[in-house]
Amino acid sequence: MSGGLYGLTTNRTYQRAGFGAAVRRGSRPAIVVVDLTRGFTEDSYPSGADLSEAVAATTRLIEAARPADVPVIFTAIAYTEAEASGDAIAWLRKAPGMRTLVEGSDAVAIDPRLPMRPGHDQLVVKKGASAFFGTSLAATLTGLGRDTVVVCGATTSGCVRATVVDAVQSGFPVLVPRACVGDRAEGPADAALFDIQAKYGDVVTLEDAVGYIGSVPAPAAPDAARRSHRRGDST
Fold first, then answer.
1. Assessment of whether the complete model's pTM goes beyond 0.85
2. Which segments constitute the Isochorismatase-like domain (predicted)?
């Protein structure tokens, strides 16, 4: 009998503490795609790994979201030349491999395999791990009337986990499709997903996420009066 990632004793301890309850799923979700930029999805970059499987799974989820007009918000870490080469950002002293993520470079471009629609899908540029810290993401989600966040992206143990924590602290129930997130190493990724499932959101299958997104009602067509008003018709 399997004891899970950390064994039966850990599982029982977490159950006794009351962790792991399912989140409430709303009817107006948004998809947040965290840092699936070339600097993270391609192993030719110091900060990257081959995340082709996560990119393909996220693509499928995005395509399922389009008929219902579910918002898809992309994020990217990008530093100015001065930030990348200087000491103003403490994180870069800890993780100097990310100094290659410079504004305007190929490293910060959204992976071209993703079906991003420029001019339609929003892009949030950030300097830290969480997509919420120092950005307008929470206000954007609120302004769009969203009540649930589906988080995809990279890396599972870093920016994805940080984004999930801040999402739930901002009042949004969170789903994380396991197939839609990726990392450089399996161990840290598994630990992060264990932690997310226990405390912050639901880690779900891609099929579950696609089914949930696909169940969102398509936008209602404008009524005749509104169409007439836009045309400038008179009665």
1. yes
2. 30-208
